[in-house]
Design a protein that fits this description.
Low-confidence stretches of chain B: none
Radius of gyration of chain B: 20 Å
Subcellular location (chain A): Cell membrane
Organism (chain A): Actinomadura livida
Radius of gyration of chain A: 38 Å
CATH architecture of one domain in chain A: Orthogonal Bundle
Number of helices of chain A: 16
Helix content of chain B: 40-55%
CATH class of one domain in chain A: Mainly Alpha
Number of helices of chain B: 17
Strand order of the largest sheet of chain A: 1-2-9-6-7
Shape of chain A: elongated
CATH superfamily of one domain in chain A: MetI-like
Main location (chain A): membrane
Distance between the termini of chain A: 38 Å
Number of strands of chain A: 9
CATH architecture of the largest domain in chain B: 3-Layer(aba) Sandwich
CATH topology of one domain in chain A: MetI-like fold
Oligomer: heterodimer
Membrane topology (chain A): Multi-pass membrane protein
InterPro entries (chain A): Ig-like_fold (IPR013783), MetI-like (IPR000515), MetI-like_sf (IPR035906), UgpAE/MalFG_permease (IPR050809)
Largest sheet of chain B: 4 strands, mixed
Largest interface: A-B, 34 and 29 residues
CATH class of the largest domain in chain B: Alpha Beta
Number of domains of chain B: 2
Mean pLDDT of chain B: 88
Number of strands of chain B: 10
């Protein structure tokens, strides 16, 4: 019960308005009320002290110490000047990290913002918008580490494992079915009946009508031999005007077996295209049977090379090399898009809901097409929100680490500055000076974006 | 007491003065049971600090006997036989190798290199290269790389070609060989048995080992290992160290399986597991020529950093096996920086 004792009406203690509105123009009293309004500075300091101490300990001290540490060498004893900073831009690995960070900063925020805008505008128009938004936003609920693991699987090279390549192979195979025996070829070494020929296989010597040809192949992968294949047979006797032969897998299980002869236990290769060629011109063709035999009819007189054209041996389409040196950064940016587009969508959708409808209506009444309304009215009105999203994402992109670390799996071609900072300092480099230099550099890069966001928040308050 | 995974680490701590040297009593036990090379690894300056208590044997290749018998090849003993066997396997339609050359697991590549280098250039050069007394641009390195290219340089020899190999992790490479049966051989130390155990293949019947083929005059024997050190003075610690250095300690652990020791007085019969028995035979045959894993003797920035140093240089070599000179230059540049 303090107020009654002081003799001040309760309203005066409740707020400044009552005190200022006090009709009595008594100067000492006024001063007293002002004193009450602003607590003494020592008290303010006392209240702020825990927060200041915590911030100082957790934010200011690490920043200052990082700057100091970045000026010393790996051991921390010798002063290194700006060597650590120039070192960031030297060496192949570091330059790749700088380049990748630049790609990230330019591509990722704008891409995520555009996709977020796209989703936000679309969800305005569809039913079940909430369900759709929920699904797009859901990746945000997954930790980056888990997202990284998921996308590492998505980008696996083997189409049996990686869904990205599985999809590409499925699409490819609907249009062009690969058949044949990839990797198969003639036996190496001199004096063989067959030789490599422009991706295909051809006989070393020449043959003419009425002859039989043995075409032994090796390196045939068992998984490509169809179930209907039968044991290799001797070629049927050639009639006049015919060339017959056998194409078979000339390898006896367990080794042994006479080479270049269809031994017991060796498999014929069905479905192989065979051509008789003279001077680059195909004069007759045939396809092998289940036991590997073939018969070419109506072969004119003359000497021919018998050829198995290259399309018998084309390697199957295996999709893209997602985690190879060129695609790896775009691939990781793709996973970043998956995680963050929901965030961008939700912010932009909120901005979209706040746009005055009458501006859009007015434009429509004036005869603007939907595209013009979007381009000339919606986007300018949304610009502040888009800016905030893009800038927030830029800050976020500069420190991207988890996705690159997990999906890249240590590949230097994927590295970014934030990852390089860790690698240099702790991940084997053991040079905390160089790591600190990268950290300070990142801080300098993030600072303008932070300032921009702080200024915006201030502007919104006034 | 502590058990450290790298002798290099032990030396760092010893120089800082964090470790206590072994008492003369323990040192004489070490002298009795270990060859001088292993004592030297446990020493810094002129004092001995550590006892090698456990070894990982890295000079073997694992293979699938079924694939070998289908193709009619025998486990090779020389590099030339290995290349020929790989060719025959390929003719039989089996991919000869899986290679774990992913950025995080390129240590397998350093192990391949070390085996070939130790075999060709001999233990003395091996020690010099580990200390960077020989430059990586040396002709011996060139020869070793050219030898490796006889296998690494043939994409058809590697499961999935170079594109897959350079992204394969070590555990994946073992699974590809023994779980999916996509290849006939895979490199892995004795510890790969743990990975094989996760597949349906059974170690000893479906998965066997042969000694890493000789590429030169020396039969290579590369080991990794853990070194026990004492952090405090005291009778108890020294007594325990003495026990760990004794054959009795080795025998107990060997009987439990999953264990190899460089202690030469632990008889092969003490090992319960047949693969270990075979390996210890190889190891003891190698005798004084056995060497510690080079990449664990070099500074970590060169020999033990994913995506950097020796790991990445050799991984790039798998991608560009023709570029022997460029690989050597890169190795030397990385080494020069790491040793400075």
């Amino acid at each position: 019960m303090k107020a009654p004792k002081d003799g001040v009406p309760p309203a005066a203690t409740a707020g400044g308005a009552a005190a200022v509105a006090d009709p009595a123009p008594d100067p000492p009293r006024k001063r007293r009320s002002r004193e009450r309004l602003t607590p003494p500075s020592w008290l303010a300091l006392l209240f702020l002290l825990p927060a200041l101490a915590l911030l100082g300990f957790l934010v200011v001290y690490p920043i200052v110490y990082s700057v100091i540490r970045s000026l010393f060498d790996a051991t921390g004893d010798a002063f290194a000047g700006v060597d650590n900073y120039t070192g960031v831009f030297q060496g192949r690995e570091n330059l790749i990290a700088v380049r990748n960070t630049a790609i990230w900063v330019v591509v990722a925020p704008s891409l995520v913002t555009i996709v977020g805008l796209f989703f936000a505008v679309l969800t305005e128009r569809i039913r079940w918008a909430t369900a759709f938004k929920l699904v797009v936003f859901m990746p945000m609920a997954i930790s980056f580490l888990a997202s990284g693991v998921i996308f590492r699987l998505v980008y696996q090279q083997d189409p049996d494992k990686g869904v990205a390549n599985a999809a590409m192979v499925a699409i490819h195979d609907t249009f062009a079915q690969d058949t044949g025996y990839p990797g198969a070829g003639p036996r190496g070494g001199g004096d063989q009946p067959l030789r490599e020929d422009a991706g295909g296989v051809a006989t070393t010597g020449t043959h003419s009508a009425g002859q039989s040809v043995l075409m032994p192949l090796v390196k045939v992968k068992p998984e490509y031999v169809p179930d209907g294949a039968e044991p290799a047979a001797q070629p049927p006797p050639a009639q006049a005007g015919q060339v017959t032969g056998t194409v078979w897998f000339d390898f006896t299980r367990g080794g042994g077996g006479e080479p270049n002869v269809p031994n017991a236990g060796e498999t014929g290769l069905p479905g192989v295209k065979v051509e008789a060629v003279r001077g680059g011109e195909v004069v007759a063709t045939a396809t092998t049977n289940a036991d590997g035999t073939f018969t070419m009819a109506d072969v004119p007189d003359g000497a021919y090379t018998i050829r198995l054209p290259a399309d018998n041996f084309t390697a199957p389409y295996r999709g893209a090399e997602w985690l190879g040196s060129t695609l790896i950064t775009p691939a990781i940016i793709g996973s970043y898009l998956w995680v963050w587009s929901g965030f961008a969508m939700v912010l932009i959708a909120a901005g979209l809901a706040a746009i005055p409808r009458d501006a859009l209506e007015a434009a429509r009444v004036d005869g603007a097409t939907e595209w013009q309304v979007f381009r000339r009215v919606t986007i300018p009105l949304l610009a502040p929100v888009l800016m905030v999203v893009a800038v927030t994402l830029t800050i976020n992109v500069l420190k991207v680490f988890d996705l690159v670390y997990i999906i890249g799996g240590g590949d230097p071609n994927a590295s970014v500055l934030a990852l390089e900072m860790w690698t240099e300092a702790f991940g084997g480099g053991n040079d905390q000076g160089a790591g600190s230099a990268i950290a300070v550099l990142l801080f300098v890069l993030v600072a303008p974006a932070m300032l921009f966001n702080i200024r915006r928040i201030r502007q919104e308050r006034t | 007491m502590a058990i450290l995974p790298q002798p290099g680490l032990m030396k760092q701590y010893a120089e800082k003065g964090s470790l206590k040297p072994l008492s003369p009593d323990v040192v004489s036990e070490v002298d009795k049971n270990f060859s001088p090379y292993w004592k030297e690894l446990g020493s810094s300056g002129d004092k001995t600090y550590g006892v090698m208590i456990k070894a990982a044997y890295k000079s073997i290749l694992w293979y699938r006997p079924q694939a070998f018998s289908d193709a009619g090849v025998q486990p090779p003993t020389t590099w030339q036989e290995l290349v020929t066997a790989a060719g025959t396997l390929q003719e039989a339609g089996t991919t000869p190798f899986t290679l774990a050359a992913g950025p995080d697991d390129s240590w397998t590549l350093t192990d391949w290199f070390e085996n070939v280098y130790l075999s060709q250039a001999g233990p003395e050069n091996y020690d010099k290269l580990a200390e960077h007394e020989i430059k990586w641009t040396d002709p011996t390195v060139k020869k070793a790389l050219e030898t490796l290219a006889e296998i690494w340089g043939k994409p058809d020899f590697l499961n999935g070609g170079v594109a897959t190999a350079t992204k394969t992790k070590f555990d994946e490479s073992v699974t590809q060989a023994f779980g999916q049966e996509k290849a006939a051989m895979v490199y892995g130390g004795d510890f790969a048995a743990a990975n094989i155990a996760t597949t349906n293949a059974k170690v000893g019947t479906d998965a066997k080992v042969f000694a890493f083929p000789k590429a030169g005059d020396t039969a290579p024997a590369i080991l990794g290992g853990d070194v026990a050190v004492a952090l405090k003075d005291g009778e108890g610690a020294q007594e325990l160290m003495k026990f760990l250095a004794s054959p009795e300690a080795g025998k107990v652990w060997a009987g439990l399986g999953g264990y190899l020791t460089p202690n030469k007085n632990v008889p092969p019969d003490a090992y319960a597991d047949p693969v270990a028995k075979e390996l210890i035979g190889q190891l003891q045959q190698a005798g004084d020529a056995a060497r510690y894993d080079m990449s664990d003797l070099t500074p970590a920035a060169f020999g033990a950093t994913p995506g950097d140093g020796m790991w990445e240089a050799l991984r790039t070599f798998v991608q560009k096996p023709d570029d022997v000179a460029g690989t050597q230059k890169k190795l030397e540049a990385e080494a020069a920086e790491a040793y400075k």
